[in-house]
Specification:
The complex is a heterodimer. Chain A is of the alpha/beta class. Chain A has two domains: about 90 residues, Fe-S cluster assembly (FSCA) (GMP Synthetase, Chain A, domain 3); about 60 residues, no CATH class. In chain A, strand 3 and strand 4 form a beta hairpin. Chain A is globular. The two termini of chain A are about 35 Å apart. The relative contact order of chain A is 0.13. By secondary structure, chain B is mainly α. Chain B has one domain: Ferritin (Up-down Bundle), CATH 1.20.1260.10. Chain B is globular. The N and C termini of chain B lie far apart (about 40 Å). Classes of the chains: A alpha/beta, B mainly alpha.
Chain lengths: ~180, ~250
Amino acid sequence: MLARIPLMDAELLGDRASQQDPSLVALWSLLEDVKDPEIPVVSVRELGVLRRLEREGDVVRVTITPTWSGCPAMHAMEADIRSALAAAGVPVVEVRTRLAPAWTTDWIAGSALDSLRAFGIAPPAPTAADPLAADPVPACPHCGGSDTRRVSEFGSTACKSLWQCRSCAEPFDAFKRI
Amino acid sequence: MHAEPELFHYTLGLADDALVLGQRLCEWCSNAPFLEEDLALANVALDFMGRARMLYSHAATLEGAGRDEDALAYLRDCREYRNLLIMELPRGDFAFSTARQFLVDAFNLPFLEDLCRSRDPELAGIAGKALKESRYHYRRSRDWVLRLGDGTAESHRRLQRAFDEIWGYTHELFRAGEAEQRLVAAGFAPDRPALRARWEALVVPVLAEATLRRPEDAWSVDGGREGTHTEHLGHLLSELQFMQRAYPGLQW
């Protein structure tokens, strides 16, 4: 029996091609300045929200994907992407919102995990095979202590849960894996 | 089969479910038992609001009549709403809201799993996002059922009373009208009656662990999908729709 090797999703393959396209390097680096309004140390690309850029003449097409369905920051991110491109002299910006494949915290760039921790947010663990498994206990982003307790499954925003460190007694947010 | 009008009504019903339950959850904002729970309820509500927006936008596209998501949410009357009755019941005490949320979250898991395979790629995409969130919702509401059911005599009494009151409304989750059955046959919609066993597997063992009694299947109510609602929906909509009714076209 032949082993089946899963292929990369066609959309994700297209995203990767765009992110590695030499002719788009300037645009990608320009948009590195667009940060998550709630977490201003992480760019929308690092967050995995900004998926793809395409240029055709005067038009730059941007593909974004929402994090949590109700996240009110999505609107601000889209507006910030538009104004950054407009300020750089791009005449026409088209933004497409893509739902599938659904955003996952596994897409958050490795470079952003340390930024999150330095900002006081425990970064997400990798997603698990059992989708109903509880999130692993995060280490305290303030003192590094591992003795922490969950206060609530939902913190200051939908994407985070609320924890408290028993070592330094500080409360902190943890990014939920999804 | 020409599915568009039926798919529009189907999607609209799912959007109404999400909006009406989301609105009920919003009512807890600043009223929850403590601050962390206030935040949690508001965040779960936001997920349902986001889900409603995606579904209304898709419904508007399917209808193709020039109405947008706001027109569908704010400018339809009570009898035009198609949500299931369980979504519109008043929030009651915290035990009642917990019982309802647990039963609906447990339904959403198998329902959304199957909707991910819909032949409509947009519905499948929305379901893929919503499913991940509903798993968090279910975990949270299950924790509360265990905590209140196996808690004090008073919390146990209240939660049991809540399940007894609401149980008859759960049967509507597993009913499908003729139009929906056609969408099931054509691969667009999950088969609701077939979801019951998976729902019970997520509900019944938790009730037992929480030392609660599974209510008897003694009565049931339905009519939401046909627009026959309880008296409570009109009051909810009058608050939800007030601004757009009083000041048509008002922008934020």
